[in-house]
Amino acid sequence: MFTTKWKLFFGLLLFLIIMILTACVNEGSIEKYTLTVNVEQATSTPTIKVYDDQEEIASQKGNPIQFNLSNGSYTIEIITDGYPTKTKEILINDDNETISLNPGKEWSLAWADEFDSLTLDSSNWTRQVLPAGTFNNEWQAYTDSSENSYIQMDTDGNNGAMVIEAKYNDQGLEMGNFTSARMITNEKVEYQYGKIAARIKVPEGQGIWPAFWMLGTNIDETGGDTSWPYCGEIDIMEKIGGSNTKEKTVHGTVHFANEANAYEYIGGSKTISEYLSADYHVYEIEWNADAIIWRLDGVEYHRQDMTDPMFDEFEAPFYILLNVAVGGNWPGYPDATTIFPQKMYIDWVRVYK
């Protein structure tokens, strides 16, 4: 009798052990999927938390961050300095997921030119005609010729880019032997404040000076009553060609007349690991009454406080410019190493409010 009881006891114990081990194996075999969370335009390293039915199950600091999650519904929480906490619901359903969140304000598209038609939209752009030497001792003349500015479609005809082409007539490296284009939206597309962005592939070479910028609509060169710099200027992107570092550096600047009515400029720059001409990049500003923020590919690299009264000229509408200059006081001039033609490709230009 005693032996039979022990046999029953050990049999039951063995059964329980088998059940526990089976449960553990089943638990460990639950399929996991990768959730990648990217925080756009973060000004500091964010903390990203994952909640399952209001219970926090994971928390990491970084950007981007990956979590391994099983099937189910989760709440993602983004905590970033200077912004309110933002949450997003996500469903994991037998696949990896990637989400992008912007902790800042929500933007709506106010205007855009995607350059996806065969012809330049004249309701958006004017080809400004200016002789060589008009500004900064630059060597190029700006023309209204379609040889210097045009739309180029991709091979399937579905996506285009505006091309600004700087050309050389092979008559000597001096003023007047180069042509290019200066595209402006004056009296067509004008905005005060917002996010102004463009996706651009810049040219390269000694003396080549591409720019994406804005001028006050009251400037006298386009019919206004205010001379530069009293109208204000915002350089969203400038890049001067030449040395290794120059080709990797983007500049963002404001030009203005200070309270002493003297010309002044303030700006910042960012140097990356490769030539900016190697690929398309998104250049943008976020502009409001308090500040202008410059970003390269969504990452802030300079912020300028605009609350000082000397910045009053920036409390007005501005228009957009895109151009490629050849030579000038700042970049210097082309030499035997500079290859022509040089082209700047603009995939799109967008304004958000």
UniProtKB/TrEMBL annotation:
GO BP terms, alphabetized: carbohydrate metabolic process
One Gene Ontology molecular-function label: hydrolase activity, hydrolyzing O-glycosyl compounds
Any coiled-coil regions, as ranges: none
Domain GH16 stretches: 113-353
PROSITE patterns (alphabetical): GH16_2, PROKAR_LIPOPROTEIN
Pfam family, any one: Glyco_hydro_16
Family assignment from sequence similarity: Belongs to the glycosyl hydrolase 16 family.
Protein name (database record): Beta-glucanase/beta-glucan synthetase
Organism annotation: Halobacteroides halobius (strain ATCC 35273 / DSM 5150 / MD-1)
